[in-house]
Amino acid sequence: MGNLLYAVAVILVLAWLIGIVAYGAGGLIHILLVIAVIAVVLRIISGRRPL
């Protein structure tokens, strides 16, 4: 499940970067980025090795 969290986090960060370039997605991309960061922080807090 940890690998899945990182896969989702990477996909969301890439989507955020595409959103910045395209500038059409608005606030949704930033919400997705926050979710990705939360997933990484939860993984670090749980004591597992990040990336």
Helix percent reads: over 70%
| Share of residues in strands | under 5%
- Which oligomerization state do the chains in this entry correspond to? single chain
Question: Could you say which overall geometry the principal axes of the C-alpha atoms support?
Answer: elongated
Tally of individual domains: 1
Instruction: Please give the radius of gyration in angstroms.
Output: 12 Å
Mean pLDDT across residues: 75
Low-confidence stretches: none
Give a count of the beta strands, DSSP E runs of length 2 or more: 0
What is the N-to-C order of secondary-structure elements (H for helix, E for strand)? HH
The largest sheet, given as strand count, sense and whether it forms a barrel, is: none
Q: Structural class from helices and strands?
A: mainly alpha
The end-to-end distance, rounded to whole angstroms, is: 13 Å
Number of DSSP helices?
Answer: 2
